[in-house]
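Tutorial handout. Part one gives the primary structure; part two gives the three-dimensional structure as tokens.
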Amino acid sequence: MNKKTVISKISARTGVHKSVIDLVFKGLYETLLTELQKGEEINFAGFGRFYTAERQERKYISFQTGETMMAPPHLVPKIKFSKNFVDKF
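Part two.
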């Protein structure tokens, strides 16, 4: 399922126009991205928690050159679904 299909299903279920739902999705995306880049956590009760975790420096092999390189430490986004969400799944 893609974003367009999700928007259509939400629109059919709620009666809200698709363009409004699309604006909400864009706003949610931008807000999540901005806050996660700052290191903030975002909690949605009954759904889950968005947060960041730091990946440590690690070795990897470049498939193009075969050379062993080091990946620098960096932040990665993560989500942990709530127990309520998982139980209903």
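Part three, for discussion. The beta strands are 42-44, 48-55, 58-61, 68-71, 74-81. The radius of gyration is 18 Å.
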